[in-house]
Amino acid sequence: MQRTDYCAQITKQDIGRKATVTGWIQRNRDLGGLAFVNLRDSSGIMQVVFPGDDSSLAAAHTLGREDVVAVTGTITARDTVNINPDMTTGEIELRAEKLEILNRARTPPFLIEGSGEDTTEETRLRFRYVDIRRERMQSNLLLRHQVFKKIRDFFDEQGFIEIETPILTKSTPEGARDFLVPSRIEPGKFYALPQSPQLFKQLLMIGGIDRYFQLAKCFRDEDLRADRQPEFTQLDFEIAFPRGKEEIISLLEKMLDQLFRNTLNVHLPQRFPCLSYHEAIARYGSDKPDLRFGMEIEDISHLVKGCEYRIFTDALAVGGKVLGINACGCAGYSRSQIDRLQKLAVADGAGGLLWIKVGEEISSPLAKFITEERLQEIVALFGATSGDLILIVAGEGMEPVLGSLRVTIAHQEKMEDDDWHFLWVTDFPLFEHTEEGELTSSHHPFTSPRQQDIAALESRFATALADSYDLVLNGVELGSGSIRIHSRALQERIFTVLGFDKEEMEERFGFFLHALEYGTPPHGGFALGLDRCIMMMARESSIRDVIAFPKTTTGLCPLTNAPMSVTREQLNELKLQKQDETRKE
After folding, report:
1. What is the pLDDT of residues 553-563, one digit of tens each?
2. What integer pLDDT is reported at residue 436 of this predicted model?
3. Domains plus CATH for the chain?
């Protein structure tokens, strides 16, 4: 019995002809005589009727959920009273004439027709081959396929060449820990899985590849969360001789517009808004601000200067600021709700959180320290009206505190709309300090400083800005790019500022530094996180729901039980010992 049709592609125009369909049993309503079966394949569901007067079809009464069958029969119209408007095939059914049971199934661990919320994520991932049968997962994986195809078509039309770069490569610092792979042939030495194809795509530019792209697998050994996986896929592309970052930004905007139109029927603006890093921090308290709601940060330092409130005077005395946001419509917050916000602010580094409630009258703890007129000026500065709640913090670097409160309030008050708010953030600091106090690159060490910052790089590295650009969508960073360094001399200067000596430069980056001496063109590019992008396009909250076989937040695969221990023989081949065995010796 060979399939002639997919279930959901049969319509009432096919009434009267024979068809053979195959798939999984989603539901079996056995009425003793008749049996009504919902048969599901990758296209959807149709109803199959097994008449009770045909003994050759008696096995239909034994069919259970997820049994795999092939059914041949005649396509017939349903009675008017039995039409199901909720099914694509609700006007027809297949009257079975022959049944072949291809495989029996154990009772599935959860309902295939469910949303997945009837079980734990760990169970869904352990039985991922069952979970993938759900309509939601099928839709997400189809969207992923469409996104990949549209991207490839677009870059091919723009004259790019898709080139694969190595998976087994050399460990280089790119912001996260590497996954290491021991070498059997060179005992004691290791490959690293690439965090990105960064150096290889730059080598392709040196090699005369004018326009490169790749849907690249990348690996980072870092703490996981809902929008992060240890292995992920990114759109990676690079251009030689670009007309500055504007050409790269314009190209990506055009690609995203085509992608959203062709997959979601959504038209994006011709140009995305743009903020510098410092503007984003000053206005939103984040380098990836969510523009779906307001609550911009305002500086009220000049309005409270000279007041006797100690927190303000102490902050202003050391060069800090007094900042606030207007939580529109939140004046009804109870004391306990405000206390919870205060705890969040203190946990983020604030000394405390002050408030002003705007109603028929203005109420605030600040009323003891500043005049009614000054309170009115603060309210006016925020554009606050009756029903609004102004939240205020004081100190140095308090913008991120308000940025966090802004997102928390917007989420709990459901202020986010369903639109797509893209944003470019540019001119990041070239360097930053880690939590341990070490100097590191904000993006990666191959990012070019802005031209105006190159001359005094060593003496003013703390204020040097990168010729870089991040793409943000609804508060989520989708990717980043930059104009790259194409001079060995400048690259060595960057490494020197980062603390590398000549010997370390040669050991870790010698192959790349030598390549820069062989006629390197100016170049720049971008890396777009496709898993995150597809997650947002699918309106999912976790990238695990748009990846076929993801890991948990602890890096485990419940399906295969990876990672796992290896045998003593395997370790011996690699000339490796377990740490506890070394200690025993």
Report:
1. 999 999 999 99
2. 85
3. 7-103 (2.40.50.140), 144-271+445-451+462-484+506-553 (3.30.930.10), 293-415 (3.30.1360.30)
